[in-house]
Amino acid sequence: MKITAADIAHVAALANLDVPPEATETLASQLSRIVEYVEKLNELDTDDVEPTTQIVRGTPHPAREDKVEPRGGSGEAGKTVRLFNVPRVISGR
Q1: 26 belongs to a structural domain
Q2: Chain centroid to CA 76: how far?
Q3: Is the pTM of this model over 0.70?
């Protein structure tokens, strides 16, 4: 699959990223090579390979008790500060 500079510009606009026009060709080339490599990996015969679920053997899976706890964080901070100034991240392009 060939990725074009137009694809890069389209995805950048969707993600609200500023990609300089001179970088789009380089990014398109690099991403095309990555996709070609993944397509090569898809051609490998993996029929005789057993799926793995845990690579590290002899190490117990870390687990914690599942319990509901009150949420802290920004809500608690908002009660004391009462105001948050954040940069605008959504524009009307």
Answers
A1: yes
A2: 29
A3: no
Which residues form the domain of 8? Answer: 1-45
Residue 53 lies in a domain: no
Q: Kindly state the average pLDDT of the residues 54-83.
A: 70
- Residue 4 and residue 39: Cα distance in Å, rounded? 17
Domain count, the chain: 1
**Sign of the C-alpha dihedral, residues 13, 18, 20, 23?**
negative
Of residues 47, 12, 6, the one with CA closest to residue 28? 6
Structure tokens at 53: 């679920």
- pLDDT(15) > 70: yes
The Cα 90–Cα 93 span in angstroms is 9
- Rounded to 10°, the helix 21-42/5-14 angle is 100
Distance, in Å, from the CA atom of 69 to the CA atom of 66, rounded to the nearest integer, reads 10
Any domain includes 11: yes
